[in-house]
Design a protein that fits this description.
The chain is α/β, with parallel strands linked by helices. It contains 13 helices and 25 strands. Strand 5 and strand 6 form a beta hairpin. Helix 1 packs across helix 7 and helix 11 packs parallel to helix 12. The structure holds shikimate-3-phosphate. Shikimate-3-phosphate binds next to helix 6.
Length: 429
């Protein structure tokens, strides 16, 4: 499929974005191993989350659809999952692969995990190596570097571990494994990554203590189900926040967006660049803060983003490259090497496609440098089958003279089915 977009004048209107992807994955996984029924509201029906849903079903969990975006999970308790008769297919989802590797290491059965071509290239050693220290028996291609992975479930031992790189997926895998030990597992991270797993474990009455940078979880204690209300995904909202920041006279409101501080880096950075962003109706639901975001266009200036800023806006960095093409001065992003091991090499992808559109952008080993402002021209662009690259380029297309074609745009359904429709709503308001 191709997404074809033309230059837009401004964005106006009020919208909702679909439920948070990270929280949707976690509610399925934690609901499956809890005691009792969990109702999930505003679940994200995207391909990645549906991969997790099918994996949990294959592990013997009953998941019922109550409506388009609400589900009920019949929890099996910590020790109630069953061996899958099929290879667990995670599709394109790194979160599914890594979190399930942690969960399945502590079961009393055998599992095999596989996914698409992109997943088979993504680093798995970062999760397998610490899990092996806990006594997990996991194998993968090239000594556990790559999927497919096979796991012989075993009794795990608690341990203390400091993550070498901030990663919510690795942290969450270790917390899930920690539930299957007979003691206290202590995990530290160099910088705070998204903490949705910890927040959900807290309201499910896990024995978890958070004393940043340390998280301590006690194993062997059953989780109690609770209803989960999932906020809109700030990473999906980000495309419209960015577009309203760069299209003159724009003013939009995005309702009920998750504003967990481990995720709001995009808001902080855009405010620093000059965008007017207000948080309205701030409140906490299911232990996660949410708010309506009001965004207004304003002239932008350069910004510098370094390693400390990266975890809270990791998935939004390709979008920053686009915003930077409209900001006065030299924007520098560094300390973001992790972008090279996402669904595609996102540094290479965004630099090459933005160059085609006429941007002044330079690739660096751990980031990029953009000189702005520049005017962009429409081009035929590659998505690299990466949903975030495709949607970031869609934002660039709104600025560009002429027509922009984004190839293989069906990958957008990985995280945001209905993206184009929501965008058109704001353009035609
Ligand atoms: C995610 C964590 C991040 C992020 C990904 C979702 C999660 O990955 O990029 O889109 O749900 O835990 P890392 O843990 O690899 O940084």
């Amino acid at each position: 499929m191709e997404l074809v977009l033309e230059k837009a004048n401004k964005l106006k209107g009020n919208i909702f974005v679909p439920g948070d992807k990270s929280i949707s994955h976690r509610s399925l996984i934690l609901g499956s191993i809890a005691q009792g029924e969990m109702r999930i509201y505003n679940f994200l029906n995207s391909l990645d989350c549906l991969s997790t849903l099918e994996c949990m079903r294959a592990l013997g969990v009953e998941v019922k659809r109550d409506s388009n975006d609400s589900l009920t999970i019949k929890g099996k308790g910590l020790y109630g999952l069953q061996e899958s008769k099929v290879i667990l297919d995670v599709g394109n989802s790194g979160t599914t692969m890594r979190l399930l590797t942690g969960l399945l290491s502590g079961q009393n059965f055998y599992s095999v995990l596989n996914g698409d071509n992109s997943i088979k290239k993504r680093p798995m050693k970062r999760v397998i190596q610490p899990l092996r220290l806990m006594g997990a028996e996991i194998w993968g291609r090239e000594d556990g570097h790559f999927a497919p992975l096979s796991i012989k479930g075993s009794q795990l031992n608690p341990f203390q571990y400091t993550l070498p790189v901030a990663s919510a997926q690795v942290k969450s895998a270790l917390l899930l494994a920690g539930l299957y030990t007979n003691g206290e597992t202590v995990i530290s991270e160099p910088l705070s990554s998204r903490d949705h797993t910890e927040r959900m474990l807290e309201i499910m009455q896990a024995d978890i203590k958070i004393s940043s940078p340390e998280i301590t979880i006690k194993g062997g204690i059953e989780l109690k189900s609770t209803d989960i209300f999932i906020p809109g995904d700030i990473s999906s909202a980000a495309y419209f926040i960015a577009a309203a920041s760069i299209l003159k006279d724009s003013q939009i409101i995005i309702k009920q967006v998750g504003v967990n501080p481990t995720r709001t880096g995009i808001v902080e950075i855009l405010k620093k660049m000059g965008t007017k962003i207000d948080l309205l109706n701030y409140h906490i639901k299911s232990n996660e803060p949410q708010a309506d975001l009001k965004i207004e266009y304003s002239e932008l200036k350069r910004v510098e983003i370094n390693q400390e800023d990266v975890p809270s806006l990791i998935d939004e960095l390709p979008l920053i490259a686009i915003v930077a093409t409209q900001a006065q001065g030299k924007t520098v992003v560094s300390g973001a090497r992790e972008l090279r091991v996402k669904e595609t090499d996102r540094i290479k992808a965004i630099v090459s496609e933005l160059k085609k559109m006429g941007a002044d952008i330079e690739e660096k080993e751990d980031g990029f440098v953009v000189n702005g402002p520049t005017s962009l021209q429409g081009a035929v662009c590659e998505s690299y089958n990466d949903h975030r690259i495709a949607m970031s380029l869609a934002v660039a297309a709104l600025l560009a003279e002429g027509k922009t074609v984004i190839k293989n745009s069906e990958c957008i359904d990985i995280s945001f089915p209905g993206f184009e429709k929501t965008l058109q709503n704001l353009i035609n308001h």
